[in-house]
Amino acid sequence: MQQRQPLISPEQLQNLFHDAVPVVLLDTRFNLANPEAGEQDYLLGHIPGAHYVHLDRDLCGTKTGRNGRHPLPHLDTWQATLTRWGITPQSTVVVYDAQGGMFAARAWWMLRQAGVVASSVLDGGLPAWLSVGGALDLEIPVQSHPISPWPDSPSQWHGIVTVHTLEANPSGHFLLDARSPERYQGQVEPIDASAGHIPGARNRFFQLNLTPTNRFKAKEALRAEFELLIGQTPPREVIHQCGSGVTACHNLLAMEMAGLSGSHLYPGSWSEWCSDPRRPMEGISHPAPGDFS
Fold first, then answer.
1. Is residue 60 among the annotated active site residues?
2. Which residue in 125, 121, 97 sits closest to 110, CA to CA?
3. List of residues 6+ apart from 78 with CB closer than 8 A
């Protein structure tokens, strides 16, 4: 199966429908402040055939209090979830949300790491789909029975960096923090136990990847911005993180779009790092009230 571009336009998705190309759609709408809101919105209308993907239930594993707010599930668990939606490594998959790819990028990254290379994020998400006259549906697709073993795919996550690697030399890695500048600087922290950032991390707010209409910027613009940020650092040495390993995938996707492939993800991110007060931190070390971002 040939690898698809990370992004697909709503017009291209319509063409897939028109040409009767088998495609699995995943709706990842979510609200960090109201975890059930995304599924409620899905039930009120979604792109025809789309399965609902819940960030906490489907894109995360068991939380221990020390492994971050959105730890990765075991890969075999994720593979079983995919087959429940009728996805195999040969499937064409399109993922969308209504937040500019904030949550869809996490699912896209997990799909690619599991071996589903023909997977893309719908650029602009549901609002973009509606803007080109795309239809909505209320029907919930039938779930499939998981198959085992998962064919022709990795047996464990790759493309990740663990907390143990960072602990050994926290300032010796090129980290990009996708959180808002206010959270990165430690001015506010609405979610995690401590404010601030991992020593040496640079800030690249994930929303900088988007235009005012929540579509991704042109690949040339993204490449220029990321090259200015990372300088001579090879993409394979860039490690993405955020609060919990979700919006970090947005920066990773943007780098892929820009032709800067091979960067890594630190899934535990700040929520895992700051769970142990013995780890070094930069910025304010006490939480302050603020908004989600």
1. no
2. 121
3. 72, 110, 114
